Amino acid sequence: MTAPLYILFSGNGSKVPDRKTSPCSTRVKQKILQHLLKCRGKAINVAKGIQVIFEGLFAAESTNQKCKVYSLQFAANLISFGEKDLIEKLSKVLQTYITKLIGADSSEPVDVQNAAYNAIAKLIVICPDSFNKDVNLIVDYFNYLNAATPDLL
């Protein structure tokens, strides 16, 4: 049921030029992400979801603040409701890319950082083994909270 949304968001990647579709515009991506945020259970495709998250966060031509927030909210849903074994395998990748958006050296707006911290918190709950060895991330988080402005909290 949600497969066409994933294809519309990212394009189909077909090798045949006549059947190839390109990714949709930023406004359409925001609408698709709003619908993907409602998905639960079998409607969440982890592999396509990861692609949607990375395109929503890091695609240079079609990212804005709202798209990033929706992508991070979808990441939190994907982590919570996706297949646990796949999430555990991809936890390091998710951790690496989401932590690029947070911290004292981040230039992201407050609401993007809040959504990133929420996604990291969900990832910690689902995959605590990934974070047991990485105490620096937790120390950095509390140091950042001490120095944060009140609107971040």
Give the N-terminus to C-terminus distance in angstroms.
37 Å
Rg over C-alpha atoms, rounded to the nearest angstrom: 16 Å
Residue share in helix: 55-70%
Strand content: under 5%
Q: What is the makeup of the main sheet?
A: none
Principal-axes shape call: globular
Q: What is the mean pLDDT?
A: 84
Order of helices and strands: HHHHHHHH
Number of strands: 0
Number of helices: 8
The unreliable regions are: none
What class, by secondary structure content? Answer: mainly alpha
Summarize the structure.
The protein has 153 residues and is mainly α. Helix content is 65%, strand content 0%.
Structure description:
The mean pLDDT is 84. Helices cover 65% and strands 0% of the residues. The longest helix has 17 residues, at 65-81. It is built from 8 helices and no strands. The protein is mainly α. The chain has helices at residues 3-10, 26-36, 46-58, 65-81, 84-99, 110-126, 128-132, 135-147. The N and C termini lie far apart (37 Å). The radius of gyration is 16 Å and the shape is globular.
Any chance you could write out the topology, listing elements then pairs?
Layout: H1 3-10, H2 26-36, H3 46-58, H4 65-81, H5 84-99, H6 110-126, H7 128-132, H8 135-147
Helix pairs in contact: 1-2, 2-4, 3-4, 4-6, 5-6
List keywords for this structure.
153 residues, mainly alpha
